[in-house]
Structure to design on (196 residues):
């Protein structure tokens, strides 16, 4: 299906900035596939990709009065899409780290599209853990993946409980930064391809 053409984008943006819903629908129809492609690339989930489309266009509608002052709409929208995608992935990553949702669905024969995204995220998380210094890695694995308390970790590794907690905090910070860098790079690369 071919994308609709925008004959006079500046005029269209002016109409959207004035609250013209028909003009907004034209803008939506023109750009939604690019936003959807970005969302699907990042999440491998049709539902999440649709959510990203809705979130991006909701933000555009909420900021519609700014459209009069925007010279490069494509770049402006790209920034909104990128930030929305990064926020989505960060919240998902933090949720996974906090809730330990990284266990595989071995007992289930049924896989959903989120299972694919979970597996990819799990592989990325494993890479993040492997790059940790040895002691931080041990504490992270024992505490987060094996569920061992800091007191038991301290005894096993011959360190203090305070040191165990410090290593865990440092490990989580390193993992978060590792994941953010990878996500930012992947999102930026895909946006350049998609919106060029």
């Amino acid at each position: 299906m071919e994308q609709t053409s925008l004959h006079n984008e500046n005029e269209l943006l002016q109409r959207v900035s004035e609250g013209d819903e028909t003009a907004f629908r034209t803008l939506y129809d023109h750009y939604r596939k690019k936003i959807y492609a970005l969302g699907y690339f990042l999440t491998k989930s049709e539902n999440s990709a649709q959510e990203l489309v809705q979130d991006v266009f909701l933000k555009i509608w909420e900021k519609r009065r700014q459209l009069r002052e925007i010279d490069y709409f494509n770049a402006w929208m790209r920034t909104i899409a990128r930030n929305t995608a990064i926020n989505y992935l960060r919240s998902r990553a933090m949720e996974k780290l906090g809730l330990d949702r990284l266990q595989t669905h071995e007992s289930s024969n049924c896989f959903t599209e989120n299972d694919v995204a979970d597996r990819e995220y799990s592989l990325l998380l494993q890479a993040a853990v492997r790059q940790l210094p040895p002691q931080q890695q041990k504490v992270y694995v024992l505490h987060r993946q094996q569920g061992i308390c800091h007191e038991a970790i301290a005894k096993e590794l011959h360190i203090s409980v305070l040191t165990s907690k410090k290593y865990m905090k440092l490990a989580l910070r390193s993992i978060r930064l590792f994941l953010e860098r990878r996500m930012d790079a992947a999102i930026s690369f895909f946006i350049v391809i998609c919106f060029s």
User: Anything to note?
Assistant: The CA atoms of residues 93 and 150 lie 23 Å apart.
